[in-house]
Design a protein that fits this description.
Chain lengths: 113, 115
């Protein structure tokens, strides 16, 4: 059974710092991996999707990497801003049927002005 | 930009009562999902729906749960006899196509409180 783990559970950093969020998964047979953002009282917003054949994806200040063989992904946020404060979720698609996602527990990020 | 909507945003019910959570997926999407998130826990897959039938369901999705697409726009989750442990945030999601690059779009969620 696929298990997804995220470390740390919470992170608080001053504005402007670069930071890394970690995600690990137990079964390397994934179709793709996604990073989502969850704001309080709101739904999940997809940030980046990395296909299983890719090593990384970039969107603005965000860069996500994938090492399928070791079961790891990282989300790098450059020059953090208070608006980046949210919970970040990692999810893997097992590629079985209609895109069933398995989520990690998330990292709650606080950027202090 | 198109978005997934859910109603109500918050539902309070008594244990044993039936509830129906409603979702309007993005109009040209073909795949529909329900997930739940118990407070402080992971987002968990409940069910996926395609071509008017369930394509996959989790162990959580027992006989108390059912889904329906009653018309061309709504997608509903029914819980027949709610239990205290059904209290959670329920998210609906939709997906246009199953490819390696398409992503699910999530609604804002319905917070269900069972008393």
């Amino acid at each position: 059974k696929q298990e997804v783990t995220q470390i740390p559970a919470a992170l608080s950093v001053p504005e402007g710092e670069n930071l890394v969020l970690n995600c690990s998964f137990t079964d390397s047979a994934i179709y793709n991996l996604q990073w989502f953002r969850q704001d309080p009282g709101k739904g999940l917003t997809s940030l980046l999707l990395i296909q299983s054949s890719q090593r990384e994806q970039t969107s603005g200040r965000l860069n996500a990497s994938l090492d399928k063989s070791s079961g790891r992904s990282t989300l790098y946020i450059a020059a953090s801003q208070p608006g980046d404060s949210a919970t970040y979720l990692c999810a893997v698609d097992l590629g079985q049927g209609a895109q069933k996602l398995v989520f990690g527990q998330g990292t709650r990020l606080t950027i202090n002005p | 930009e198109p978005e997934v909507t859910q109603t109500p945003s918050h539902q309070v019910t008594q244990m044993g009562q039936e509830v129906i959570l409603r979702c309007v997926p993005i109009s040209n999407h073909l795949y529909f999902y329900w997930y739940r998130q118990i407070l402080g826990q992971k987002v968990e897959f409940l069910v996926s729906f395609y071509n008017n039938e369930i394509s996959e369901k989790s162990e959580i999705f027992d006989d108390q749960f059912s889904v329906e697409r009653p018309d061309g726009s709504n997608f509903t989750l029914k819980i027949r006899s709610t239990k205290l442990e059904d209290s959670a945030m329920y998210f609906c999601a939709s997906l246009q196509r199953v490819t390696s690059t398409d992503t699910q779009y999530f609604g804002p969620g319905t917070r269900l409180t069972v008393l």
